[in-house]
Every structure is written in structure tokens, then in C-alpha cells.
Amino acid sequence: MHDVEFRAVSRRFDDGSHAVQGVSFTAPGGKLTSLLGPSGCGKSTLLRIAAGLEAPTEGSVWIGGVDVTGLPPEARGVSLLFQHYALFPHLDVLGNIGFGLRTSGAARAEVQARAQAMLELVGLQRLERRAVSELSGGQQQRVALARALAVEPSVVLLDEPLSNLDDRLRRSMREEIRALQQRLGLTVAYVTHDETEAMAVSDQVVVMNEGRVQQAGSPHEVYDHPCSEFVARFMGDAAIFELVPDAQGSLVLGTLRLPLTAPPGTAGARVMVRPEAWRLLPVGAEGLPGRVLRRAYLGHGAEYMIDTDLGELLVTTRHAEVLHQPGAPVSLALGPQGVSLLDTGRPPAPPATAHGARPEASRAASVPSNQETFP
Prior knowledge:
By secondary structure, this protein is of the alpha+beta class. Helix content is 22%, strand content 30%.
């Protein structure tokens, strides 16, 4: 189990711009670390630097306590699985899996035995002589993963490995990758732009933007306790509000007292509220008055867009026994989960401050297409 450590790694282009800048974090041995962020934030560049396919302009990469920055790719004990798998069309399934072993000089019998073992590990028995063009997308992904594992790497790097699969297959394959990683005790760095995928498979999530690490922590930490507005919004739907403590030092949001303690210097702080933090109450109950604008029934629950004095709020409920109709008056309360103060050391966002101004809610402040709408 080898740690992968990035120490102040930067990659600068000839024009002076940066793909990554001053990146430092550790992917722990035997764990799965996801690199999460928008396109162009430097995630894939970090994988290529770790694999030795690109050299950092500054900084160093350490694997298993050894500085590998100057080592060639074949000397690092690392396998990189590309987004498009890069399978060889002229080789059958077994030939693809054993390719890395053959090029490393392994004996023919060893190549055959280990490739067959990897084939069984990923559940593709009896397909060893099948052409890769005859496989489904999920099967091709398994062949690429088996090829990466066949050389017994100390570290596996996965660059958007599920981006070419449909939603149902993505879910199945991410569960298989996670199970395989845990069973073999692999150190995995996993690039994705999908926050749901990152939270589902990861021990650690590293959120990046514009070539820098914004936050690193467990899926629970970065979702429930984001350090900034960017992380809060990228990890899921979020409404962001500015706060001022009342005379008693409690934090209030409209008519609601928040389930938070106000630390010193909280004036001007911002609070994040996830859609699932809201509680829908019957009209007249103590809380924040609102009116249902739109509703979407999702089977496992429902999503609502609620018009309030704080703005239009996205509210999600689970196991919806009572469905509120569009146009219905409701009251909103807040539960203890999904409410978090953002980093008070950062300057506040510049929303309007006039009475009745409505803060920008989530980046996805909409309800799916099966919605019912109040005109």
C-alpha cells in the first residue's frame, strides 16, 4: 500500500498560464481518492504527472516514500487507465490484458496465467478470445481495468473511467471498481467531474478549481462542511445566505433560528443550506411561510420549488406520503443536517443588500421535467 504525495506541484505552460499551481495533498495507501472538479481544473494533468507522462514545472511527486519525479513511467509501479480505454483492436480480450506483461519481458506462461487470473477477477470468463470490438462498453471497461491490474501496480490511476457509459451501467461499474479496490487493498486516484460518483466510491475527495486544491476530506466533510461557496455549490445543490447574529448572538435566517453556534466575528458570514435540510410543515406551523411553485414526484421522494421571503428555495423530501400541490401554502423549518457556516475568512459574495433582496440559490435551482407548476 503506497501513498501518493504531491508536494507543491505546478505545471506551467509556455504562455505563463498554469494547468496546476502549488498542489499539495496525499492519496493514502490502500484508499481511493477522487480528484473532483470542473473540466480544465487540472485533475487529469495531476494523474499524468503522477504516471510520469508529464513533468511538473515545480514541485515533486512521492510514491511509497520515494521521490519519483525524475523516474520514467515504467519505473514508478503505476498503471493509468485512460478515459477511452485505448484497447488494441487487433488483439483479443486475453491479448489486451496481457499486453503490459509481454512488453515488460514476462515469460509466455506467466503472461497467460496472470492474464487469465485478471480475466476471472473482473468477471469476463469465457470471453478471452472475443474481439474487443464485439464487447459492450462495460465489458471493454473491465478489460482495460484488468490490463491495468495485470502488471501488479502499487498505484492505479483512473482518468474519467466511466464517462463513456450510460447512467445505469455507470452505477454498476463504480460499485465494481470500489469493491475491487477494497478487496485488493489498492491505492487508487480517480478523476471525475461527477460529485455523486466521487462521493459513492471515495475514501477521500479532493475538490479542485482553476488548478488549485479547494478542499480535501472525506465525502461527508466536503459535502456537509464545505470550506467555500465554490465547494458548496460544486458538491450539490445549495442555497447560500449572508448572516448577522441577533442581540443574543444566535444566527437567524429570516424568522428561523439556525441550529448553529455563532463563533466570534461571524458578522458578514455566509451559511449553506442543502435542499434536504428543509422540513415542509403544514401552513400555519411556526417557521418560514412559503408557497409551492413547482413540484416533481421522484418515487423515493419529491422536489419542490418554494417561494419565500428569502427567495425561491429548492426543497427535497424523502418518502413523500403527503404531496403538496402547486399553489399550496406551506411553512419551512430547518433540520440539524445540511446547514453549515462557510469559511468566514473569505470575503462575502456581492449580493444585493436592499430589503427583500433574494440571494442566488443553487446552481440547479430547477425542478425536473415531470413537474407540476403553479401559474
